[in-house]
Amino acid sequence: MLASLAIALALYAVLRVVIEPQYLTSRRPLQFAHVAPRAMAEPERLAQSACWADIDADGDQDLFVANSNGPNRLWRNDGLAHFAEIGAAAGVGTVVPEPTGCAFADLDNDGDPDLFISARHDYGSANRLLRNDGGRFTDVSTGARVQMNDIGAASSDWADYDQDGAYDGFVAARFVGEERKDKPNALLRQIRPLVFADAAAARGIWVIVDLCYERLIYEPVAHNLPKVLFDRHRDRTVLAGSASKAYAMTGWRCGWTVAPKELTAAFNVIQGQSTSSITSITQKAALAAITGPQTAVTEMLNEYRKRRDKIHGWLTAHPGIRCVKPKGAFYLFPDISGLLSADGLRSSARRRW
Length: 353
Hints:
Blueprint: H1 2-19, H2 38-41, E1 47-53, E2 62-67, E3 73-77, E4 83-85, H3 87-90, E5 99-105, E6 114-119, E7 128-133, E8 136-139, H4 141-144, E9 153-159, E10 168-173, E11 186-188, H5 192-203, E12 207-210, H6 225-232, E13 237-242, E14 255-258, H7 261-274, H8 280-291, H9 295-316, E15 340-341, E16 344-345
Helix pairs in contact: 5-6
């Protein structure tokens, strides 16, 4: 009996090796090496939290460290695993008593990640929101109404939960000392897109939104202004789209609008007297492009992203050239003022960088 059982188990083991070899394939273990230089270690600073983001749009992830004993640190990454501390110069070095967390998010949709620092209120501190303008931060906490002096914050995270095109925040509360009551978590809904739509509606302003590049956005940023406008300002909103960019139909001149009925009728009058209509071939091609698989669009977007990164890297490798890395489309606008002087081009012998 035991011999039969042993044979059966051996046969089962052999069959598993033959039929399911993936179960015997060893997975490569995750391994990390501690590479922080002494300057970044700073055990005396009592770091409370850290977060990463490309704060200066150079393609390299920079590091913010919130400290409770001494100034915060912002370590700029030069892309070669070398970091330079720029906290004071960037405007984030101000001490926040007992910070508890930090998070980067592009809260104003300008392409620069902004910084939110959550803090304990029992140390005379409050949450801080620092707006990023090209790598320089400004405290906008009061105007943004995110301080919440009565909440001892533990951490926060940001996402566009209501799909209105703007990031919203969740701040987790923490108990402080003996105060273990009335410390609710907070859900912060950003109302800026709503304010914009309401202001336009109150003044009777027409809003035209150009969506030609909506499928050529490289980063996962929140953007849904059309929905906000249609929900709150539908009678004076025009959405303009095109097959030229995302579907590479530049020569076919195919576009469309979503607008109030009366305005669309006026569009038809003008279009009918100029070109009569779009050719039937173009209409069918555009319909196939929009309703068909979007794999080709994704592949093109990925290729454009690679080209953007390479060209941006080539340009900014020269210390005399500055260039913001675009978040969408396929244009770069380098700043070559560092290569110029009053009498023309600046030679390497007279460089200022």
